[in-house]
Every structure is written in C-alpha cells, then in structure tokens.
Amino acid sequence: MNRRLPRTAQGLAPSRVRSTLFAAAGVVAVLTVSGCQYTSTIQTDRPYEPADGVSSQVGDLQVRNLLIVAGAKGGKGNLVGMTANPTDRPGQVSFALAGGEQIRLMVPAQGTAQLSTPDKLVSAGSVTVIPGALVPVQVSSPSGGTVTLQVPVKYPQGPYLPYAPAGFTPAPEPTASPEAAEH
Length: 183
Fold this sequence. Notes:
alpha+beta; about 35% strand; Immunoglobulin-like; nine-stranded mixed beta sheet
C-alpha cells in the first residue's frame, strides 16, 4: 500500500528549500554589492582641486584657487585667489608674475586674505598667454621658500566676470538670425 502524505506536507519541503535558497541568494547579492564599496576608494579621500585655480603650500601658508582673469593675450589681467594662515603669527606671501610684477599680501594669524575682490582688484599686469592657457607664477614666503605654479588664465565670464580687468567688454550674446526666426 502506498502511503501518501497529506497535501500540505508534500508542499512544505520544496517551499522550505525555496525559501532557504532565496535567503541565501539575497545574502550573496548584498555581500557582492557592498563588496564593491570595500574595494573602491571614496573620491573625497583623495586630494584634488575642486576649483578652476591651483593650490599650494608655501611654508606655513596655504595658497588656494589661484588664477588670473584676462580677456585676451596681451591684455591686462587680475590675480584672484586666497591665502590662509593657520599659525599664531601674521604671515606674508609674495607673487612674482611673468611680466615682472610683484604682489605682496599680508595674511593675519589664524586668518585668510583674498587677493582680489569684485571691489578691489589686484592687477597681474599684461598677460602673455590666451585665456585657457597656463602662466608661471612664483609664490614665496619668508618661512617657506619659493614654488612656481602653473596658473590658469580664465576668460572673464560667469563667476569670473566681476574680476574682469578695467575696460573689459564682454562679447555680445549670440542672437537668432532673421532667417532662423522665420522657420
């Protein structure tokens, strides 16, 4: 005589196996996906330049987001950037530009100093390269020696328009041609 198990007992074993397999697959999937994070470096753990300018450490002083804003090669430019001083004594930093200009900036103890603001621009003199290129600038401090930075020259548009040299006229915005308006 064949003994048959009740219907609920027959379906119980495969259901339990299926549940166990689904749970195991879920655990494997979670471990696999989270394992990618384990082997990948988080971008904010790496130092990088989050701005258009360049940064450097000169002795105790930190130079941040240094760039020149100029409209054309041979035209005037303005030096833009910030210097931070984390020490308990005032500091001084000097910038020597390709045209021979020397700019000195005093930085208060535990403070910062801006090179240019929209109200007070610091001239970089005549710029020897086109906007988009790099120009060497020597940065020095009494406590840290001298470093030469390749500083980008930015065209005065968008956030750099307030730092445009005196007399700069922005290019006119493009307009639609009459032929394009007819279509």
